[in-house]
Design brief:
Blueprint lengths: L2 H17 L5 H4 L10 H19 L8 E2 L4 H12 L4 H20 L10 E3 L2 E3 L1 H20 L4 H6 L1
Parallel strand pairs: 1-2
Antiparallel strand pairs: 2-3
Length: 157
């Protein structure tokens, strides 16, 4: 995926998150399916991925760098816990802010760095590949959240 396509899709996420304001709080804090996260927890999980990526990954995504993998279970649990401490509206605003900061940071990266190879936990990839995977991660979680959107809202989309 080209850099401009990645930036466009990352921006589409902000528009989508804004659209979630139509989901009532009482629905947003319930698991989308038994034993799963709520939309509030899912959106916070995505926002924390944005924050972590910008702060702990992006500065080190350079040719030849080797980054450690992260224990994702505790990371994800912490994100879900954060979501339970605030309203869905607050999570939405936080998520939009984190994604916008990522877009701004990516715009500053020279195109020549887009395909430099680095490793995370022994797995080689580039910024292009990382953010292409990131977009697929977004889509996976969007489907989960969309499953709770009231039918009349789905019809409007």
């Amino acid at each position: 995926m080209e850099k401009e396509q990645v930036l466009s899709k990352l921006n589409d996420y902000i528009i989508w998150v804004e659209s979630l304001k139509t989901i009532p709080e009482q629905i947003a804090i319930l698991p989308y399916k038994e034993g799963k996260w709520s939309p509030n927890e899912i959106v916070m999980h995505m926002a924390e991925w944005d924050r972590f990526t910008r702060e702990e990954r992006l500065p080190y995504m350079k040719e030849g760098e080797e980054l450690e993998d992260v224990p994702w279970g505790p990371f994800n649990d912490a994100a879900a816990s954060l979501a339970r401490q605030q309203t869905f509206a607050e999570t939405i605003e936080y998520a939009k802010e984190q994604r916008q900061k990522n877009i701004s940071a990516l715009k500053k990266i020279d195109d020549s760095q887009w395909d430099e190879s680095f490793k995370i936990g022994g797995h080689a990839l580039s910024i292009r590949e990382y953010f292409t995977d990131f977009i697929h991660h977004d889509l996976h979680h969007k489907e989960q959240v969309e499953s709770v959107r009231p039918v009349e809202e789905k019809d409007k989309k």
